[in-house]
Amino acid sequence: MKKKIAIIGGGPAGLAAAVAAKENGVDDIVIIERAPSAGGILMQCIHNGFGLHTFKEELTGPEYADRYIKRAKEKDVEIFLSTFAIDISPDKVITCMSKDKGIFTIEAESIILAMGCRERPRGALNTPGYRPAGIYSAGTAQKFVNIEGKLPGKEVVILGSGDIGLIMARRMTLEGAKVKAVAEIMPYSGGLKRNIVQCLDDFGIPLKLSTTVVDIDGKDRVKSVTLAKVDEKLNPIPGTEEVIPCDTLLLSCGLLPENELSQAIGVELSPVTGGPKVNESLETNIPGVFAAGNVLHVHDLVDYVSEEAANAGKHAAEYVKRSAEASGDKREFVVETGNGVRYTVPMTVRPSECDTLTTLRFRVGNVYKNPEICVYMGDRCVLRRKKQICAPGEMEQVILKKADLDTLKDGETIKVLLE
Question: Is the domain of 317 the same as that of 270?
Answer without folding.
Answer: yes
